[in-house]
Amino acid sequence: MQEKGTISIHTENIFPIIKKFLYSDNEIFLRELVSNAVDATQKIKRLATLGQYSGELGDVTLEVSFDEKKKTITISDKGLGMTAEEIKKYINQVAFSGAEEFVEKFKDAKDANEIIGKFGLGFYSAFMVADTVEINSLSYQEGAEAAKWTCDGSTTFEISASDKKERGTEITLFINKDSEEFLDKWKLQGILDKYCKFLPVPIKFGTKTESVEDGVDDKGEKKWTSVEVDNIINTTAPIWTKSPSDLKDEDYLSFYKQLYPMGEDPLFWIHLNVDYPFNLTGVLYFPKVKNEFELQKNKIKLFSRQVFITDEVKDIVPEFLMLLHGVIDSPDIPLNVSRSFLQADSNVKKINSYITKKVADKLSELYKKDRKAYEEKWNDIGLFVKYGMLSEEKFYEKGKDFTLLKNTNGDYFTLEEYREKVKATQTDKNEQVVYLYATDLEKQDGFIQSANKKDYDVLVMDSPIDSHFIQHMETKLEKTQLKRVDADVAEKLIQREDGYANLLTEDQSKTVKEIFEKAISNTNYTIEVEGLSPEESPVTITMEEFMRRMKEMAATGGGGMGFYGAMPDHYKVAVNGNHPVIDKLLKTEDEAEKARLAKQVFDLALLSQGLLTGKDLTAFVKRSVELI
After folding, report:
1. Confidence bin at 110 (pLDDT 50/70/90)
2. Which residues make beta-bridge pairs with 133?
3. Which residues are annotated as a binding site?
4. Whose CA is closest to 187, among 29, 45, 374, 42?
């Protein structure tokens, strides 16, 4: 048998395009060729199961090997194999119509993934790294003759008889000069680990040394000896392919360690398994997210029939679920170009919704099953849940029943429970229920204590997205307002009709204001003399709630908030006209002493907010010593 011919693509330009435009992602050649070999192996196993192949299957292990001297990489399988006619049919006729139109369309393409796969070019990815490719194959069909196909990267090929004796296909790549980096054991091992670690057929890549037990020594202790064994690089039946009823907690934890060897144990997990209206399997883990969610993203791996595709799954998984870890496997996710990029079609949207629902159902189940255990996990999963509430309306509707609020006493409440707790004491004159919160328990302790004296409850809101979550809660909760506990003096946080009157006359208030303006001499502070409880501090410094919230949202990447982030900090200075110190200040005749006393109580207020630093702090300490 001897035949020469031309690959049916009607143009001389196809291979230069493959080599040039696919070069940026050239390691995928190995994934494509190994995947093809797995497909061929799976098919022969299926035929044997159906009784359509009566021969011995034997050992169906695939093998990947390389020869650094000959500059070759070989992928061998014991699958279906091909006859000469099948090689001509499946290999020579590149699967697209209008080759000239194809060349024109993609001649300026910058992305390899616009080409591979879309036009049946999986096999031809071999030419990204090889000058010449040989296929040596023997079909499973009775009486079939082995055939050898050779192509040197042009559009001409040659088919001849082969002396191959075993069923299957052997593809040999003669690596080009620019791709000799792939003639390295660790480089190839890395690619196989990345893409082929969970393929359903054993893949051998060389050998490895293992220690095996070899009897006992004279002292009765075990002896070990080193032996060379096949280096099987993959686990053929990962846990997501199994039934949850067949798995134990240690199986899930062991698999997590396999995926993330340096990772801390996850909190819990969800096993996905659905076959209608789409096929989807996988395991999603809830990591201990805490306050580092940006560092946690892109930890979900996407597979298609156990072939690794990508860890960029934002089209399949909602943004907030990108914080999860684990794997998703679906043959129904539409993948174009080399299976690497996703198309947003109806299946993807259905899968997206399904995953959101499963996560919400799992959290709801955990909350209802063991409230105390759920509360113990809240510090780790709270940021994740709030992120979901912010970004996904359907998740909010479910999540509002298992989202918890934590107060400064360490008690937890659902949204409904908390409203019932505070509405009697924290409803203002406009019938708005006011939730007070702290972002820094140490820094805001004085304000928290002042609020507690008035029987107000204070929430802890210290995660990176709480400024956004607070804003979202106000839009969702009816007649509810949230204020940071240091947004104003305790008397003013919740406006009531029965507030304290200012005991100073109008002229006295004006005088006090002028004294403080002169002592402070800073336009970033607005001074107001107010009637407050004599037990409150003589001076309190606060930032107006709206402005501070906008600045916090700008700091955490709030869209359109950059304007506020660039504005200088501006504070309100509330002088308590009913405090004895202010009365003393008014009775002091020495102007310098008045200024010194005003500056002292102002600096005390700065100190309580952590705003007194540098030379001002040094001067305050010196002044305090003098006043003792």
Report:
1. very low
2. 151, 173
3. 32, 36, 77, 82, 97-98, 169, 339
4. 29
Q: Are strands 72-76 and 130-138 parallel, antiparallel or unpaired?
A: unpaired
Q: Tell me if 366 sits within 8 A of 385, measured CB to CB.
A: no
The dihedral over CA atoms of 9, 10, 15, 16, expressed in degrees to the nearest 10, equals -150
Q: How many whole angstroms separate alpha carbon 22 and alpha carbon 110?
A: 9
Contact 308, 27 (CB under 8 A): no
Burial class from Cβ neighbours inside 10 Å (0-12, 13-18, 19+) for residue 267 reads middle
Q: How far apart are CA 511 and CA 245, in angstroms?
A: 78
Identity of residue 429: K
Binding residues for ATP: 32, 36, 77, 82, 97-98, 169, 339
Listed in sequence order, the residues at least 6 apart from 562 whose beta carbon sits closer than 8 Å to its beta carbon are 554
What would the mean pLDDT of 4-26 be, rounded to a whole number? 57
Domains observed in the chain = 2-205 (3.30.565.10), 239-373 (3.30.230.80), 403-463+476-493 (no CATH), 506-627 (1.20.120.790)
Peptide bond into 534 cis (omega under 30): no
Q: Is 138 helix (H, G, I), strand (E, B) or coil?
A: strand
- Mean pLDDT, residues 61-89: 94
Q: SS3 for 583?
A: helix
> If pLDDT is split at 50, 70 and 90, which confidence band does 114 have?
very low
Question: Quick one: which of 436, 441, 383 has its CA closest to 410?
Answer: 441
- φ, ψ of residue 162 to 5 degrees: the values are -125, 155
* Residue in 417, 388, 390, 387 with CA at minimum distance from that of residue 401: 417
The answer to whether 313 and 297 have CB atoms below 8 angstroms apart is no
Give, in degrees to the nearest 5, the angle at Cα 404 between 400 and 408.
145
Q: What are phi and psi of 483, to 5 degrees?
A: -135, 135
Residue 485 DSSP one-character state: T
In b/e form, how buried is each residue of 554-587, taking b as 16+ CB within 10 angstroms?
beeebeebeebeeeeeebbbbbbbbbebbbebee
User: How many CB atoms sit inside 10 A of residue 54's CB?
Assistant: 8
Q: Residue 387 in 3-state DSSP?
A: helix
Burial (CB count within 10 angstroms: exposed 0-12, middle 13-18, buried 19+), residue 92: middle
Confidence band, pLDDT 50/70/90 cuts, at residue 498: low
pLDDT at residue 296 is higher than 60:
no
The mean pLDDT value for 224-240 works out to 91
Residue 227, beta-bridge partner list: 210
Name residue 325's beta-bridge partners.
Answer: 285
Residue 502 is predicted with a pLDDT of 85
Global model pTM greater than 0.85: no
Q: Residue 277: is the preceding peptide bond cis (ω within 30°)?
A: yes
E strands, 108-253, are: 130-138, 147-151, 156-161, 168-175, 203-216, 222-232
Q: Could you report the per-residue pLDDT of 364-383, keeping only the tens digit for each? A: 999 999 999 999 999 888 88
Banded pLDDT at 248 (limits 50, 70, 90): very high
Q: Are 466 and 386 in contact (CB under 8 A)?
A: yes
- The span from the CA of 356 to the CA of 247, in Å, is 23
Residue 481 backbone dihedrals phi, psi, to 5 degrees = -130, 140
